[in-house]
Amino acid sequence: MKKRFSLLTLVNLLIYLFIIAPLAVVVFTSFGESSYLVFPPKGFTFHWYIEVLTGGRYTKPFWNSIWIAATTTCLALPVGTLIALAFKKYQFRSKETMRSLFLSPLIVPTLLFGIGLLIFYSNLGVSDYFFRLVTAHVILTVPYVVRTMSAGFARLDASVEEASLILGASPWQTFRLVTIPLVRPALMASAFFAFIMSFDELVMALFLTGPGMVTLPMLIYSDIQFNMTPAIAAVSSIIILGTVLIGLIGMGMLKRNKIL
Fold first, then answer.
1. Where is the ABC transmembrane type-1 domain (predicted)?
2. What are the residue boundaries of the structural domains of the chain, listed by start?
3. Domain 57-256 - what CATH class?
4. What is the tens place of the pLDDT at every residue in 45-83?
């Protein structure tokens, strides 16, 4: 038993190391004094963080990515939630076909979606880069919301909803006051996935945006090709920190409300 436990612990440690090591390399590299990316870093400085935070070059792409991700989340969350709820509540002939259709963005390469949407929007004459990118991101993120919310609804005790209806609550009141609070962890996880997936997406942005709408992943991708300085690592480290903080805040909220 001890040998098996030790082996399992070792495997887990190796998995964690495999996940964390690349992130640690990025963070350490961001403090290097050299004008190009090198690991291990030479010297120690906050120069690249100061440049990123005060230089202004990354500010607009950062806020572009934030607004796109926030808008995508606000659209994908209700759409995906309603789809997952429909799959749970209703039985219809083409249910499995519809389920596969809604989950197809998880299977089809993003490159193909990007080409297809580029042709589609070009034929329609849609030139608003923000609209093009948000709708594309909604298509990509809705499947994650559907999967996550489906798992949340599957764990939901139907008798609680039935009791609410028996006691005189309307279907809308039951959904708003009973169902939603019970699936709040799934909602928060869905929102987190949708936001991060949209914020981090690159392929769609390369196809569907132009000079007036540059996202942070696009700028980082460009810098890796033509301007490979530790500023890239500094930006990436800030994103890593933000992601960790959002995750910790979400877990804290769930624990405070005794959901976890």
1. 62-250
2. 57-256
3. mainly alpha
4. 777 788 777 877 788 888 888 899 999 999 999 998 888
